[in-house]
Amino acid sequence: MALDEAVCNAIAEGNSNPTIRFYTWNPSAVSIGYFQELLREVDIDFCAKNGIDIVRRRTGGGAVYHDSKGEITYSVLASEDYFPRGIIDSYKVMCGWIIEGLRGLGIEAEFKPINDIVANGKKISGNAQTRRNGILQQHGTILYSLDVDMMFRCLKVSDEKIRDKMISTAKERVTSIRDIDSSIDFDRAYLSILHAFCKDKEFYFGDFSESELEEAKHLAETKYSSREWNYWR
Amino acid sequence: MVLVERKIPNGKLVRVEVDFTDNRISHLKITGDFFVHPENALLTLEKKLEGSNVEGIKETVKKLFATLNAEIIGFSHDDLSSIILECYRIARGNSSVHK
Fold first, then answer.
1. Which of B38, B42, B37 lies closest to B14 in space, CA to CA?
2. Cβ contacts (< 8 Å) between B74 and chain A: which residues?
3. Among A24, A74, A211, B9, which one is least packed by beta carbons within 10 Å?
4. Residue A111 pLDDT more than 80?
5. Cα-flanking dihedrals φ and ψ of residue A135, to 5°?
6. What is the pTM of this model?
7. pLDDT greater than 60 at residue B95
């Protein structure tokens, strides 16, 4: 979260180029949407006992369990001038890259407004976007493998009696790359997605600059790990 | 404080907490998995609704949405005013207020 914001700031200041970033979560974590109330969404005791981080995003959307081995996460950070003005239209552009990456794996998927991608009618990717200071940040996850039980233990369920039902419903509604084709290993999935994101773009592989990393560290310590930020709603 | 949560069809989950003083909103908080661009417009919306009379809330919310200069994705002005009215009904403990 902090690195995304640091890079956005650097782009806004003219010090960094548009950036596409892929990452995984270690340890596993729960992220919540900017407008969600943390205590209503997340079982903070369960997360603490199981070493699961919790962080609020600066994008809207829902709470997500990020399994350390279960997903490919990306961020696109660039001037909003590169994208359609309409929010949904710009989701379509970037979600199109994901759909193309999945197609490279033999998985047919489609964009489902507002911000999801579905395969076989089940959600395989969730995405969220913010635009601040003229810079667009879209991040999202592509599910590689699924641990629905863990997901529901981290997240709060309004009525405990229906937890089992919600888990079985979620299993019917959510899918992953491995669910669809268990022969696809993580690296192959990642490379296909990466290839689709890079296609038709001038790009180079690079590292984050010292100043981006320094600001990210500062933001991680002072903002994203702060009670003030994570409990603001 | 009254809380009403609603999953908007083809939209997002919206949770509204409201305190009323007589028939006016004295405090309001909107949370959920929706999107607001720019994000700080949500706090502006909450602040501007404080002090509003429940009578005519539909028009008030509609006007606010039009002047907010923001894009809200996941719920409409009608959704929000309908939830506020539901909160009011619960607060008053009767069902005499029209949606």
1. B42
2. 60, 114
3. B9
4. yes
5. -110, 130
6. 0.93
7. no
Which one, of B74, B67, B85, lies nearest residue B4 by Cα? B85
CA of B60 to nearest chain A CA: how many angstroms apart? 22
Neighbours of A27 (CB within 10 A): 12
Chain A interface includes B70 (CB < 8 A): no
> Are the Cβ atoms of B33 and A129 closer than 8 angstroms?
no
Domain region containing B88: 2-92
Domain A2-230, CATH homologous superfamily name and number = Bira Bifunctional Protein; Domain 2 (3.30.930.10)
So where are chain A's domains? Answer: 2-230
* CA neighbor of B6 nearest in space, from B43, B31, B35: B31
Query: Mean pLDDT across chain B, nearest whole number?
Result: 93
Q: What is the CATH number of the domain that holds B84?
A: 3.30.390.50
* Minimum distance, in Å, between the CA of residue A99 and any CA atom of chain B: 22
The answer to whether residue B45 sits within a structural domain is yes
Q: Which two tokens stand for residue A7?
A: 């890079």
Q: What is the pLDDT of residues A157-169, one digit of tens each?
A: 766 677 788 788 8
